[in-house]
Write a structure and sequence with these properties.
The protein has helices at residues 20-33, 50-65, 78-87, 120-130, 152-165, 188-194, 220-229, 257-270, 287-296, 307-317, 340-354, 358-362, 380-385, 387-400, 426-442, and strands spanning 5-6, 9-13, 41-46, 69-75, 92-96, 105-111, 148-150, 174-178, 198-202, 234-238, 245-248, 254-255, 278-282, 299-303, 321-323, 329-331, 370-376, 405-410, 416-422. It has 449 residues and is α/β, with parallel strands linked by helices. A seven-stranded mixed sheet has the order 1-2-6-5-3-4-7, sandwiched between helices. Helix 3 (78-87) packs across helix 5. The longest helix is centred in the last third of the chain and has 17 residues, at 426-442.
């Protein structure tokens, strides 16, 4: 990860960590970089945060000042930007969003011409320009100055694409949608209504400051209650930019990314759609998922945390399904990024084709209790590589005796070691996690007062 851009773009508090000047300069660089040999075209989408409008104008100003044309999708989802970029003649795409973060944060996500996350070499050049290392970029003049175009038709085409993927009518199905007061608010209900569902929607009144506030996939308990209170058949919750989805079954039980991978992976294997018979996960997926996959003959691969790494593995190896426990699910035949609304449609497909409720579809998976604790340290490498810490991890693994697992990893963004355990009981999880943390403390690695 670079100085400004992490695994999911340039993110931080608006006008504190990520300023309007940063956005303008990102636009300036992209317009110049992709426009050196032809007229550059860039499509921009944004979520519902108050600062997203400010950043949209700043990016468009930078792009057009460098001679590029900027096409505005307005409030839309991250996967819709990816779709428009890869299906139309754009050099790159920009999504203004901080995903599941609170409203006062924002972010700039960059996508290449294939709708994938921007390559690291381009990101490094942008960072060098932000730091003043590349000198001045020339301004466009006269008729070379770029234009800004309203491009809401691109968003509408994406919605039509999603509707076209449905294999059956949703007529008679009572569906709850939690739009997180974010990007999905103007799209998800229209799509489900068009497919015939009886749609019940909450948190679809964004005001610029309520995105993700006690709603959406990060507060799934709100949708759980709503599904139970209204006797719905299923519920789907999105995050701020709708690139991820968590579900709630008819009993109000949470169906997280791991369970979604199981439901869709099993169906795709049975129907001959799971090329390579492999699902890509991250190292945070639950051991219960892997045991369930073993039972039905599905192989799996594990990547570092981040949907970027999941997609890279899928693209390199031709895998059709991958994702994260948090709800970033990638169906590579249909999209190059996690897509919350697409995920909910694919879950509906499984339910309808197999004529089973979501609760029934997930009942064979035993999700193991999971405990994750963080400990602040002076040096992440020193703590992680300490021989006594390594020995404590080995001892904890021996206690689990193959029926559970330990994961100790360095945070990518904080001075923190994350210690996670999965086991048959929460008590055992806490026991082995605390044992490892105690050794880290005794060896003097902690940065705590």
């Amino acid at each position: 990860m670079g100085k400004y851009f992490g695994t999911d773009g340039f993110r931080g508090e608006a006008n504190v960590d990520l300023t309007v000047e940063h956005a303008y300069k990102v636009g300036r660089f992209l317009g110049w970089y992709f426009g050196q040999e032809h007229k550059c075209k860039v499509v921009i989408g944004k979520d519902t945060r108050r600062s997203s409008y400010m950043f949209e104008y700043a990016l468009a100003s930078g792009l057009t000042a460098s001679g590029a044309d900027a096409y505005l999708l307005h409030v839309t989802t991250t996967p819709s930007v990816s779709y428009v970029v890869r299906t139309e003649d754009f050099d790159c795409g920009i999504m203004i969003s901080a995903s599941h973060n609170p409203y006062y944060d924002n972010g700039i996500k960059l996508l290449n011409g294939a709708g994938e996350k921007m390559s690291e070499d381009v990101i490094e050049k942008i960072e060098a320009y932000l730091d003043g290392e590349l000198g001045e970029i020339p301004f466009a003049v006269k008729d070379a100055i770029g234009c800004t175009t309203d491009y809401v038709m691109g968003r509408n085409r994406y919605m039509g694409y999603l509707i076209s993927l449905a294999t059956r009518s949703f007529k008679g199905i009572r569906v709850g949608l939690d739009c997180s007061n974010g990007s999905a608010w103007s799209m998800a209900k229209s799509i489900f209504d068009a497919l015939g569902a009886k749609t019940y929607v909450i948190n679809n009144e964004p005001d610029g400051t309520n995105i993700n506030m006690n709603c959406g996939s990060t507060h799934i308990e709100v949708l759980q209650k709503y599904v139970k209170d209204n006797h719905l058949d299923v519920g789907f919750a999105y995050d701020g930019d709708a690139d991820r989805c968590l579900a709630v079954d008819e009993n109000g039980r949470v169906v997280d990314g791991d369970l979604i991978l199981y439901v869709c992976g099993r169906y795709m294997k049975e129907s001959g759609q799971l090329d390579t018979d492999t699902v890509v996960t991250t190292i945070m997926s639950n051991i219960g998922l892997y045991k369930a996959f073993d039972e039905i003959g599905i192989s799996y691969e594990k990547t570092n945390v981040g949907d970027k790494y999941v997609y890279e593995n899928m693209a390199e190896n031709g895998h059709r399904l991958g994702g994260e426990q948090s709800g970033h699910i990638i169906f590579s035949k249909y999209a190059n990024t996690g897509d919350g609304i697409l995920t909910s449609l694919k879950i509906m497909e499984v339910m309808l084709e197999k004529k089973q409720s979501l609760g029934k579809l997930t009942e064979e998976v035993e999700i193991y209790p999971q405990v994750l604790k963080n400990i602040r340290v002076k040096s992440k490498p020193a703590a992680r590589q300490d021989e006594d810490v390594i020995a404590a991890i080995a001892e904890a693994e021996a206690q689990l005796n193959g029926d559970g697992r330990i994961l100790v990893r360095e945070s990518g963004t904080e001075p923190v070691i994350r210690v996670m355990a999965e086991a048959k009981t929460t008590e055992l999880c806490n026991q082995v996690v605390d044992q490892i943390i105690e050794v880290i403390r005794k060896k003097g690695h902690t940065a705590e007062a």
